[in-house]
Amino acid sequence: MTRPVPRRRPRPRAALVGGLALAAAALAAPAHAAPSVTAVTLGTPASVEVGAEITVTVAATGAVDLYAYDLAVAYDPARVALVDDSVVTPDGGFADVTDDDAGTVAVAQTRLGTSPGLEGDVTLATLTFTAVADGVATFTVPAATLVGTDSAIVTLTDAATGTTTVTTTAAPPTDEPTDGPSDPADDGGTPTPGDDGASDPSSSPTGSGSTGPLATTGASVAWFAGAALLAVVVGVGILLARRRAATR
């Protein structure tokens, strides 16, 4: 495939293609019928994300004696931008590309010398764009001029159209926690053991038949209370005995 160097300033494109075709016609063998194509198609991807490349293919089906052509590809400059030096045309000829930066790319291509015209299904141009904004990007071929080996010219209008939906890249999910059930102790729910004496088994009174650490603690307290009482009684008895001895 021929990759032409884009030119920014307008050029008399029809004159260029016609002049080359006319020069070739003088060297060509017998005249041919007027050039023709069954259809011109414009292929685009269904959708891309912002920042991705869009490959646009302009093709002709059923081409007959297509020695040269000049076509325009219109695009939406608010949503796509042409990638520099990305336009490719068929091998075996000379090509010229002009992008006006306002939404139109003009592509001219011609065979050289006594080369025969293109026949059958032919890719006329492949263009690469970059998606720059979301929305529906529309591409059209509003006009095309076909030139045969005998300089016969056929002009096509509104030859093809295609669209690509440009979408914005989805934002990645964040790691922020979502609202969930709060701590039961903070919203008046069921208290945890130990927060309230009534709900803590260790703070509940034990019955006479209780066993375990609490029952042992109760018995120890009763023993110390009895011993203290006995000590008081003995002390009082000793004190009374001393008083009686003193009075005798």
UniProtKB/TrEMBL annotation:
SUPFAM superfamilies: Carbohydrate-binding domain (SSF49384). The chain crosses the membrane at residues 221-241. Coiled coil: none annotated. Residues 164-213 are annotated as: Disordered. Residues 39-158 form the Cohesin domain. It holds the Pfam family Cohesin. The keyword Membrane applies. Residues 1-33 form the signal peptide. The keyword Transmembrane helix applies. Keywords: Membrane, Signal, Transmembrane, Transmembrane helix. This is Cohesin domain-containing protein. It comes from Cellulosimicrobium composti. The lineage of its organism: Bacteria, Bacillati, Actinomycetota, Actinomycetes, Micrococcales.
